[in-house]
Design goal:
heterodimer, A: alpha+beta, Dna Ligase, domain 1, D-amino Acid Aminotransferase, Chain A, domain 1, 6-stranded antiparallel β-sheet, B: alpha+beta, Jelly Rolls, 4-stranded antiparallel β-sheet, 5 helices, 29% strand
């Protein structure tokens, strides 16, 4: 089905959105991306409309992923839309099975067609019909996760900046914790390690969704990344810059001891 | 294909003059939307994007913080946004789990542009509303 492709085959931003295409490039370059598929904006719309043939085709194609799933929007309207629509278009973590995918896709479609999303579009001068493609991936159960800049976004210094916390990376992205922070030189040598205060970890909830797990006080203030983790992250930063160019903003996770790339985009701040 | 039930749409004043074939065309454009209990369905003063017809559940209507009515299966709200994209005149909140059929103006407009007869009937319906408002 042309509206649902394995990430490795995704290349058209106008159909699948910039997030999906960025992940497709990463898979083709051999970067460690969790298995997944991209669904076109039209496919998401047909599923939201209850088109039985499309629903059946999507479920059949995506079923090999099993579950649970991470379902993320990938705005397909215009270049760079993902960043500008952050917070408008929904991300659903821990959709428990492939069979629960159609209502999740409908929810994401409506998030792009809600009153608040339409108001936002008008404010930024967009008067075209929204189109929201989607990335569906196997959801990890990470020990640690976070973000990494391949260049210091504040000073411009040629160093890697890493923020890390326990559990799913949304705790860092949403600012729910004070993450551990690390600075590395380009060779991967640690220039600074500063422990944070990670009072909660976002975990997968039984039956779907996520919850905030309280972190014991000792673990909250301990470094959650060791030397091997930092070496792996340094290697990932180097590979991402080789593939995409300098100045990357990376989301990553470590699950069962393996480092994964969740998103890689240009630094915008 | 899903869509909203034609008989329920027939009871919406805006669509009252449409014949069965026209109602069927409108009905096919609807998508189901679920709201969880307590969720704000629409907020007074914000831009409106869609019209909703309640399939199941209950919603409350308030204006300037004052409760006005409760809505149930078969009731509808937000239809004027389909025409003018204007701001919401009331806040609607899901009192229970709420299942609706929703239609955005993005999807409604092309039907109006392609079918002048439907557009004319909606104009007549709106004109009647205007006359009623002027008379009251």
């Amino acid at each position: 089905m042309s509206g649902v492709l394995p990430l490795a085959e995704v290349a058209d931003t106008s159909v699948f959105g910039s997030k999906a295409v960025g992940l497709g490039e990463a898979v083709r370059a051999g970067l460690p991306v969790p298995d997944g598929f991209a669904l076109s904006g039209q496919t998401v719309e047909q599923v939201a409309a209850g088109d039985e043939a499309t629903v059946s085709a999507v479920i059949g194609t995506v079923r090999p992923l099993g579950g649970p799933l991470a379902v993320r929007s990938s705005a397909a309207d215009e270049d760079g839309a993902d960043a500008s629509f952050a917070g408008q278009h929904l991300t659903l973590l821990n959709v428990p099975t492939v069979d629960a995918l159609p209502p999740a896709l409908a929810e994401i479609w409506w998030s792009a067609n809600s009153d608040s999303a339409i108001s936002y579009r008008k404010r930024v001068g967009l008067f075209t019909r929204p189109s929201v493609a989607v990335v569906v991936q196997r959801l990890l159960d990470p020990e640690t996760a976070g973000v990494m800049f391949t260049r210091n976004p504040v000073t411009g210094a040629d160093e890697r900046m890493i923020e890390a916390s326990l559990g799913l990376g949304e705790a860092v992205v949403a600012g729910l914790v004070i993450p551990d922070s690390y600075r590395l030189d380009r060779e991967g040598n640690a220039l600074e390690r500063r422990p944070g205060l990670k009072r909660i970890a976002i975990r997968r909830k039984e039956g779907g969704g996520t919850f905030e797990e309280e972190v014991p006080a000792a673990a909250a203030e301990q470094h959650c990344l060791g030397d091997d983790d930092l070496a792996a992250l340094s290697g990932l930063a180097r590979r991402c810059e080789e593939v995409y160019g300098p100045g990357r903003d990376i989301e990553w996770a470590i699950a069962d001891g393996t480092l994964y790339l969740l998103q890689c985009r240009a630094v915008t701040r | 294909m899903a869509g909203a039930p034609v008989e329920a749409l027939r009871r919406v004043p805006l669509f009252a003059d449409l014949d069965s074939d026209e109602l069927h065309q409108v009905a096919l454009l609807f998508k189901k939307r679920h709201f969880v209990q307590g969720e704000t369905v629409m907020r007074e003063g914000t831009d409106g994007a869609a019209f909703f017809l309640i399939e199941a559940g209950e919603a409350s209507v308030s204006v300037a913080g004052s409760a006005r009515a409760n809505l149930h299966a078969g009731d509808h709200f937000g239809e004027i946004a389909l025409i003018d994209e204007g701001v919401r005149s009331a806040t609607i909140t899901a009192v229970s789990e709420l299942d609706c059929y929703g239609l955005t103006y993005w999807e409604f407009r092309p039907l109006l542009l392609a079918n002048g007869a439907i557009g004319l009937k909606l104009l007549q319906s709106l004109a009647q509303k205007l006359r009623s408002a002027e008379a009251s």
